[in-house]
Write a structure and sequence with these properties.
Length: 436
C-alpha cells in the first residue's frame, strides 16, 4: 500500500490524468488501499477568491479547471466513487485539502455512511428510483467550478424516486413525492411512508408533513398537527412550524437564509447569510445592532479579523486583530483555531500545530479532536473523557453505534452470554430481498 502522503492527482487535472486516476481509485475502494500514484499535473490553483474593493468583501471565485477537465460520463455503477473524486477535488481546489490527504478524503466519502452505492444501484435496478446521468455529470462538474461550500444545483435532481407509500425502500432516493423512506422503522427493506394528512398529528420524525405544502404547528388544543404551509410573517408557535425554508422566530415565520445583497438579522439573528457570506451591520444603537446586508467574506489574501471572517475554506492569520486570509494550514504548520487545519488534520492545542487525526487506539476525545479519527477509523465513545479510535469493524464484531461498522449498521441484540450489546450487521441494502 502507498502511504497517505503519496502523490494523488486531483479531479480538476487534465482529462488524461483523471482517466488514469479513476481506475486506481475504484480499485482502492475494493481493496482498501490508496490509489497508485499517477503522473503529477502539479498542484491545483487555489480557487478561494481574492479581494477587490473593500478589503473584507472579496470577489467571486475565479473560474476553475480547463476546457477538458470536466466529467463526460457518470455510470450509476461508479456514482459514489465519482462523487467522492469530485468532492475531494473541490476540497483541493478550494484550499482546504492537500494532495497528501486526497486518498483519505476519498475513503471517507465512499464509506457507506456517506454514499450507499449498493442501495443506490439496487434502487435503480429494481425500478425504485430513476438515475439521470446527464444531471449526474452536471453535478460532478459543478464541484469543479462552483461554490466551495454549497451543493451544485444539479445534484438535487440526480435521482428521482418512483416508489409509492407503503412499498419497500432502501434509501431516501427511492420514494416518490408522496412520502419519505423511514430509515428507522426497524425493517428491511424500509418502508415509504406517506406524508401525514392535514389536520392529523405530526412529530417531524415518523409522522411528517409534506414539506412543500404543509407545516407542523400547534392547533388550538396545543397538539402538533399538519397545517397548510405558512408564509413569512405568519404567526407560529413551534420552531419548525414554518416549512423547510423558514423558522418560527419570536412567534413569526421568518426566512432562515438570506441571499447575497439581501437583508439579514431582521428579526433576532434571522435570516442568516449563506456560508460564504456575512451580515454587514452598522454599529449598535443603544446596545442593539440594526439589520444588515449579506456580503461576501474575504477571499484568499483578503483582510480578516479572526475566525469566521474568511471564506469557509480559508483561515485567518490572527485570532482577534486584523490579519490575512490564508489557505488551511498543512501538517505541523502553526494553528490558532480549531478549524485552521486542512481536512484530515486537527489543531493540537498543546503545541498549536496541525497534526494528523489519530489512528486506532488514539485519543479522540472532544477536547482533543472533537471525536474525529483518521480515515478508516471511528471514535468509540466511552462515556468518559477517554474516548479512543477503533478501526472500522466487520459484520459480527461488537460495536457501540453505526459509524463503528463498515456497514454503518450496529444492531443491538441479546449476546451469547445473555447480555445486551451491539453487533455489526450487514447493511439493509446488502441483505434485503428487495421487497419484491
Amino acid at each position: 500500500m502507498h502511504q497517505p502522503g503519496g502523490t494523488v492527482t486531483p479531479v480538476i487535472a487534465s482529462r488524461a490524468v483523471r482517466q488514469a486516476l479513476l481506475p486506481s481509485v475504484l480499485a482502492f475502494l475494493v481493496a482498501g488501499c490508496p490509489p497508485a500514484p499517477v503522473p503529477d499535473s502539479g498542484l491545483p490553483e487555489v480557487d478561494a477568491g481574492t479581494d477587490a474593493g473593500p478589503s473584507d468583501a472579496g470577489r467571486p471565485p475565479r473560474d476553475a479547471g480547463t476546457p477538458d477537465a470536466g466529467f463526460l460520463a457518470a455510470p450509476i455503477e461508479s456514482w459514489c466513487a465519482l462523487r467522492a473524486l469530485a468532492e475531494c477535488g473541490r476540497d483541493l481546489r478550494c484550499g482546504r485539502l492537500s494532495q497528501a490527504g486526497f486518498s483519505g478524503c476519498v475513503l471517507t466519502r465512499t464509506n457507506i455512511a456517506a454514499c450507499d452505492q449498493t442501495a443506490l444501484q439496487r434502487g435503480v435496478r429494481e425500478l425504485r428510483s430513476q438515475y439521470l446521468e446527464a444531471e449526474a455529470v452536471s453535478c460532478l462538474n459543478g464541484f469543479g467550478a462552483d461554490s466551495c461550500e454549497e451543493l451544485p444545483l444539479p445534484c438535487s435532481t440526480v435521482f428521482t424516486g418512483l416508489t409509492s407509500p407503503d412499498a419497500g425502500c432502501l434509501g431516501p432516493t427511492d420514494c416518490n413525492g408522496s412520502g419519505f423512506c423511514d430509515l428507522y422503522d426497524g425493517t428491511c427493506p424500509h418502508t415509504c411512508r406517506a406524508w401525514t394528512a392535514p389536520g392529523q398529528p405530526c412529530d417531524g420524525f415518523t409522522r411528517r408533513c409534506d414539506p412543500f405544502n404543509g407545516s407542523c404547528d400547534l392547533n388550538d388544543a396545543g397538539t402538533p398537527v399538519c397545517q397548510p404551509k405558512k408564509n413569512d410573517g405568519d404567526p407560529c408557535q413551534r420552531y419548525d412550524a414554518c416549512g423547510d425554508r423558514s423558522s418560527c422566530v419570536e412567534n413569526v415565520c421568518t426566512t432562515r437564509q438570506a441571499d447575497p445583497g439581501q437583508p439579514c438579522a431582521t428579526r433576532g439573528s434571522f435570516p442568516f447569510c449563506r456560508e460564504e457570506y456575512f451580515c454587514r451591520q452598522a454599529a449598535p444603537v443603544n446596545g442593539v445592532r440594526p439589520p444588515g446586508t449579506c456580503e461576501r467574506k474575504s477571499g484568499l489574501g483578503g483582510t480578516c479579523t479572526g475566525p469566521g471572517s474568511c471564506l469557509p475554506s480559508l483561515r485567518c492569520s490572527t485570532l482577534l486583530t486584523t490579519g490575512t486570509c490564508l489557505v488551511k494550514a498543512a501538517l505541523r504548520e502553526g494553528c490558532i483555531n480549531y478549524d485552521d487545519c486542512e481536512d484530515g488534520l486537527f489543531c493540537d492545542v498543546t503545541t498549536q500545530r496541525c497534526e494528523g487525526l489519530p489512528d486506532a487506539g488514539g485519543d479522540c476525545s472532544f477536547e482533543r479532536t472533537g471525536y474525529r479519527c483518521s480515515p478508516g477509523n471511528a471514535c468509540a465513545f466511552s462515556g468518559t473523557s477517554d474516548d479512543r479510535c477503533v478501526a472500522w469493524k466487520t459484520v459480527g464484531q461488537d460495536c457501540g453505534y453505526g459509524a463503528e461498522c463498515l456497514s454503518n449498521d450496529c444492531e443491538f441484540v441479546t449476546l451469547p452470554d445473555a447480555g445486551f450489546g451491539g453487533r455489526c450487521n450487514a447493511s439493509c441494502s446488502q441483505r434485503a430481498d428487495g421487497g419484491l
